[in-house]
User: What shape does this take?
Amino acid sequence: MKITFIPSTNLHKAAEFTFNNMRDYYARFAPDWDAEKVLGVTAELINYDIQVDSETVGVIRLQFEDDTCILRDLQVLPSEQNKGIGEAAIKKAEELALAAKAHLLTLRVFKISPAVSLYKKVGFVIKSEDDRFFNMAKPLNI
Assistant: This one.
């Protein structure tokens, strides 16, 4: 299994991917969201398609603020989860963050998301929370 990260060239398709993957969360927490709204908040981010053996199975989106890299989105098809792809994507985010001289990788995740366990496994810690989200961070070694 060869995992690669390719800059996204079709942001509409990437937004549809995210919307479809997050459909249950949007239905529960943001029923007015659709793929166009996802595109609106992700188009200006650094977008990568996650490919396994040349087939797109996910997306990753980053944003940089000062010395922090924000992992704004990490989506992997349900059929491709628990195969190391998410962990590889986080490693790629760390590499990109370090290349940009970032000292911290942060993210926000739904408390009910199974991805919380992945983030903890790779070294993220909960810094704060609200009724829906954990705000997590991982220091980067420069």
